Amino acid sequence: MTAMQRESARHGTATAGPADAAEILARAQALAPRLRERAVEIEQARRLPADVVESLRATGVFGMGFTRDRGGPELDSIQQTEVIEAISYGDPAAGWCAMIGSDTGLYAAFLDREVAARMFPTPDMVTAGLLFPHGRAERVPGGFRLTGRWQFGSGITHAEWVVSGAFRYRDGQPEPGPDGTSPGSLALLVPRAAVEVIDTWHTTGLAGSGSCDYTISDVFVPQEHTFTFADILGQPGVLAHPEVHMRNMPGVALGLARAALDHATRAALTAGRSEDYRTQTVLADCEADYAATRHGVYGALRRQHDVLAAGGTLDDLTPLERTALPLSRRHCFRTARSIVTRLYDLLQTSAIYQPSPLDRWLRDSTTMCQHIVAQDRILQTAGAHLLGARPSFPLALGITPLPR
Question: What is the pLDDT of residue 221?
């Protein structure tokens, strides 16, 4: 029995064995009511309690991106999004951590297969960290010395590995990127024990995600523990593409919005407002937005999956098809916030007290919309791609520099 399994046993759970998509989704749906019961505790702790982490681990969510040859279930991006949606229906902070933690198997595609097998001996290990290059990686024999400070380490308090983006240096001088002019960067993986967490996570919402700042000080990182999204070193497939780690993100917003709609509907029925015109129209309007938004997300995911599963690449998508996924993702986050805001207004004073889940969901949806995937930079990126111009965030489209 591994240390991880022993820890799970202490909390009355077990590390998830091999499971298919239906089983993992069923486990996530079964866990959601328990997460809802713990939501206030999770928010007040500003991190996920250890037993909640192990309950998530037992669903199989953290390992769902690992390929079958690595002992994982190899859920496609549609199935992953459904699982994140189910968990977020219980608690968005738990869903956010599940979404981030499940990236471990996705990163493995960009690492040498034998190296990844040694780093991740079981397919339920959690990775946290920030991919944007904020650190300094000084090239040394055999790898890099990494130093820096990063924000938004969601789930870092229960992670086994931390991934961090950094600019490359050699002999104190910046190394150029593939185009020869822009700074070169890469992502580096270090054990959680080599990271100092700084308790900065006092926020409007998503408090339970524990997305603290962290620092790494002159830590040696072997070359084989680094990667770029331009280099696929593992098994090719529908999950081995540069933007794969963004695909399941809308599941958090969709789960939150569905929870808010169900709560508001029950509250209206309990209050005897089923014949009230305003209640009827607001609920119907929000349901319409939810249905259209969810259809847009899953429709874009399915079209992408069909092309990739047939052996195609992201370049085989039309410009409209390629921009559909990041645009639907941004729209999803913004629409979830709009739905919660309208329902908050509908329920009036009953919604303002912090024990009300609508108060928490209002703050959670506001915070998640500050993420880059919900910002106007996505609009510029998509619009530029449609016009044949230069996108400011090409990775959202799966566009990377040439391999190093």
Answer: 98
